[in-house]
Design the sequence.
């Protein structure tokens, strides 16, 4: 059974069909690349899966459950986390605070526990320890007390991934994880992604424009064009595909 | 200005400034977390004062019990206004101005309900019954037991609120809501629950402020409304986002209304009737010259938007 299955999903914005009858299946533990020219519907597809946009038609099945009508927080709770093209963080809070926020149902979230320090401090300390481990994985541990706004572009992307990991997702949707990131750090971000798959079996669906890096790390590449899935295959095959070169690179 | 007058006015500055701080922090918190400049905040203060008054009429009641009653009733009034008015309006995505006007309306409704209650039980211009005692007399300095209730209680509550915001998971969620409400929903923060708790806290603190206010002057249905412009001036001095700035702002407003006013009266013959104009002058001056208030001056210390 695939972890994520899209069947004939469609999204219209007024008269514009942004996503047209897309079906695909993503097996658990895969790293999937999603490419295509600007305006081809990639980001819309991510938004549809994450629940930020409502489907016009079609169904989304995640881990056997129909999540087609879920709101973003319900999608998140079902095990799908996401990163944004523009880093979406609590910029005026510290890196550690950012990572601790997705932790839910702590006793310290109830005000009557708050004055009784001992009743929730242990729980909080354990979460903070786990948060530090997660930050260690994305090499941000040295910045735990920095305000998110003071991080570099690449570090913000890593912090988004760290926050997503805190919620123990099974599927991570990343929209251009290397946008605005220096080439060296961009490669490191993908190395982190590969390591997270190895260590935790997390599945990734990644929209990316830097094909030279993407193709080194993904199992399968899907190509979108004008809202349609144009091609799919192993990165090596896709790179050789003649029709693809035409729509994508215009040559 | 004679030293006796100066000393008294400074004592008033500390006492009233502490109460302004307690009320203004609620305004700042509501504005940051709920995105609402809430004028009905004045009435949570009055509601708390009446709750305190009624409890105090039962006989010899410990002031702590009085404050607890004021906290509970103030908290419920705030939560009720959220559930009955602000939440449904937010659901309809009304404009910011509609929300401001609706907060005026909520304030009016609460205020005139209190007028009816005060009329029915004949509670006009009654003071909360705690016998006045002089605790300290040192030259011109006279401190009463009221001072020792009002100032430490306010300061302790402000510290408790700051700790809650900065050191607990609930506080972290409240800061997250203040910082990026859209993202808060997406990563699964229980937004409605955090808002409910924030309302309870804000209303409760306002209620306690009302009880303490009622210790020093008479309780009346207009008392919160009379104070609200001063309180807003304090919150605006804090840039409506910084805790430290709001507290500093509260003492600046209280100092202007007491010590500066007396100074102008004594030396330049300015009539004391101009006192209510002072917070307006402060608000206009801040908005014209420094709309961000004290926030930039005390950057790291501001809690909600540091």
Sequence:
């Amino acid at each position: 059974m695939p972890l994520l299955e899209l069947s004939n999903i469609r999204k219209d914005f007024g008269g514009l069909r942004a996503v047209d009858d897309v079906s695909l299946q993503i097996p658990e533990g895969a790293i999937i690349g999603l490419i295509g020219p600007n305006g081809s519907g990639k980001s819309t597809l991510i938004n549809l899966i994450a629940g930020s946009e409502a489907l016009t038609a079609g169904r989304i099945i995640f881990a056997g459950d129909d999540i087609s009508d879920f709101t973003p927080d319900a999608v998140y709770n079902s095990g799908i986390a996401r990163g944004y093209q523009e880093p979406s963080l609590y910029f005026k809070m510290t890196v550690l605070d950012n990572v601790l926020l997705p932790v839910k149902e702590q006793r310290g979230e109830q005000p009557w526990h708050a004055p009784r320090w001992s009743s929730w401090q242990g729980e909080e300390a354990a979460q903070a320890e786990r948060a530090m481990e997660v930050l260690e994985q994305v090499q941000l541990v040295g910045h735990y007390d920095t305000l998110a706004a003071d991080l570099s572009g690449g570090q913000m992307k890593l912090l988004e991934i760290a926050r997503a990991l805190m919620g123990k997702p099974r599927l991570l949707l990343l929209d251009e994880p290397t946008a605005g990131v220096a080439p060296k750090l961009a490669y490191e971000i993908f190395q982190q992604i590969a390591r997270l798959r190895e260590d935790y079996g997390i599945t990734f669906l990644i929209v990316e424009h830097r094909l030279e890096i993407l193709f080194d790390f993904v199992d399968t590449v899907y190509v979108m064009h004008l809202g349609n899935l144009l091609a799919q295959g192993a990165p090596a095959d896709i790179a050789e595909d003649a029709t693809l070169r035409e729509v994508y690179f215009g040559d | 200005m004679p030293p006796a007058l100066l000393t008294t006015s400074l004592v008033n500055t500390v006492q009233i400034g502490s109460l302004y701080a307690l009320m203004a922090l609620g305004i700042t918190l509501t504005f940051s977390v709920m995105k609402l400049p809430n004028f009905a905040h004045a009435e949570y203060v009055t509601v708390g004062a009446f709750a305190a008054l009624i409890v105090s009429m039962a006989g010899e009641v410990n002031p702590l019990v009085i404050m607890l009653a004021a906290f509970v009733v103030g908290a419920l009034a705030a939560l009720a206004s959220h559930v009955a008015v602000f939440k449904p309006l937010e659901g309809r995505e009304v404009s910011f101005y509609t929300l401001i006007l609706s907060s005026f309306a909520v304030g009016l409704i609460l205020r005139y309900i209190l007028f009816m209650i005060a009329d029915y039980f004949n509670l006009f211009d009654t003071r909360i019954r705690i016998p006045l005692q002089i605790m300290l007399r040192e030259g011109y300095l006279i401190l009463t037991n009221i001072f020792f209730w009002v100032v430490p209680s306010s300061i302790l509550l402000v510290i408790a609120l700051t700790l809650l915001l900065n050191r607990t998971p609930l506080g972290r969620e409240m800061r997250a809501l203040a910082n990026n409400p859209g993202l808060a929903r997406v990563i699964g923060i229980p937004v409605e629950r955090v808002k409910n708790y924030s309302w309870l806290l804000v209303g409760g603190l306002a209620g306690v402020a009302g009880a303490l206010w009622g210790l020093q002057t008479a309780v009346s249905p207009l008392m919160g409304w009379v104070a609200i412009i001063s309180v807003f001036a304090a919150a605006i001095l804090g840039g409506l986002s910084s805790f430290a700035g709001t507290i500093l702002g509260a003492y600046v407003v209280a100092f202007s209304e007491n010590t500066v006013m007396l100074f102008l009266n004594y030396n330049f013959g300015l009539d004391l009737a101009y006192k209510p104009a002072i917070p307006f002058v402060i608000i206009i001056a801040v908005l014209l010259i420094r709309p961000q208030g004290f926030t930039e001056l005390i950057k790291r210390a501001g809690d909600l938007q540091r």
